[in-house]
Specification:
The protein is an all-alpha fold and 344 residues long. The protein is built from 15 helices and no strands. Helix content is 72%, strand content 0%.
Length: 344
């Protein structure tokens, strides 16, 4: 028990240090706070389930408990933000509601009935499992978008490791309950958690937390292109001129194969030389240019926006609308209306 407690406290300390570094960093506010919430939620969970800390007897137990229960939702939000995926507000509200209800049942069980309803616990575990699994799926699906190799690997590994740990916790709690007494299971959880925390902490702290978010790393290098970079840029420009960016599902790996170049060299060119944050921004810069031309063309006035989006390589209307609004500040339909009326 002493070894288990020591490892948990070491993990909590490292998580708090990581949260302080991220909180004081230059990351965008929503990334910063999502990261801090996730790190403190994991720290809260490591603390709340420790049988020797007796937090359930303290006045801070309700606050620590709600943070602990919030960990899967915090991971889900974090994965959406770090991989630049839109958050479904209805799913977020539903998951948050389940967490708050479960928190209320837990407080009632602690101070009144001393028994947690099985149905409430089962629903919370199911929601936590789905949130963690979806976070892992987001990380895997978007693993190729980031143009910085080290940051891409760190983000992917971070979300997957935390997600897998969460899935393991949910399964263990479903079988053994929240306050487990099997010392081998406790040591397994605290030991694996500490190893992961120390590894990620060492990587992130040494990089000033820039492995988690976009800092100045995507600014183009102000230097002449090398001969190899010049040749690669010519190949890339030719592919763009042939409208390769309109292919649905085009990834940087596929594009590198088409150009016959190593993927890491193409990533470096697009990020460090051309100044794009990620591959999606690079594709959108070309696609939205075409979209503006098509929307302002009277000959294409009857072309549905959905058809236009699909022809540009988008898999559905939502990501096209989002990318177009980010680039122009207006919707495709409003842009078309203004463009056509100006020409009449």
């Amino acid at each position: 028990m002493l070894i288990d407690t020591a490892m948990r406290l070491m993990g909590v300390g490292q998580l708090v240090l990581m949260a302080l570094v991220v909180g004081r960093s230059g990351a965008p506010a929503r990334i910063r706070w999502a990261s801090v919430l996730l790190l403190t939620s994991v720290a809260a969970y490591l603390s709340v389930v420790s049988p020797t800390l007796h937090l359930w007897r303290s006045a801070i137990w309700p606050a620590v408990l709600i943070l602990s229960l919030n960990a899967p939702l915090a991971l889900w939000v974090f994965a959406h933000l770090i991989f630049e995926r839109p958050i479904d507000r209805r799913l977020f509200a539903l998951a948050l509601g389940v967490t708050l209800v479960d928190w209320g049942f837990a407080l009632h069980a602690r101070y009144v009935t001393h028994a947690m309803p099985l149905a409430a616990s089962a629903v919370q575990h199911a929601v936590a499992f789905l949130l963690a699994a979806h976070a892992i799926a987001i990380a895997i699906a978007n693993r190729g978008d980031d143009l910085l190799e080290k940051r891409r690997a760190f983000r992917l590994g971070f979300v997957i490791v935390v997600g897998v740990e969460t899935l393991g916790v949910v399964v263990a709690e479903s079988v053994y309950g929240l306050m487990r007494s099997d010392i081998w299971l406790m040591l397994l959880q605290s030991g694996t958690s500490l190893l992961a925390i120390l590894a990620f902490g060492a990587a992130m702290l040494s990089a000033n937390a820039e492995l988690l978010f976009d800092a100045a790393a995507f600014q183009p290098v102000r230097a002449p292109l090398s001969p190899a970079e010049h040749v690669l840029k010519q190949k890339l420009d030719a592919a763009m001129a042939d409208h390769v960016y309109r292919e649905s599902g085009l990834s940087i790996g596929v594009l590198a194969q088409k150009l016959g170049v190593p993927e890491h060299r193409l990533r470096a060119l697009i990020n460090q030389r051309l100044g794009y944050r990620n591959f999606s921004d690079f594709l959108n810069s070309h696609r939205i240019t075409d979209a503006r031309a098509w929307l302002g063309d009277p000959a294409k006035v009857d072309l549905p926006v959905l058809t236009l989006a699909m022809d540009l390589g988008y898999g559905s209307l939502a990501p096209f609308n989002r990318a177009f609004r980010d680039a122009t500040g207006t919707s495709p339909s409003d842009y078309r209306r203004s463009a056509i009326l100006e020409k009449s």
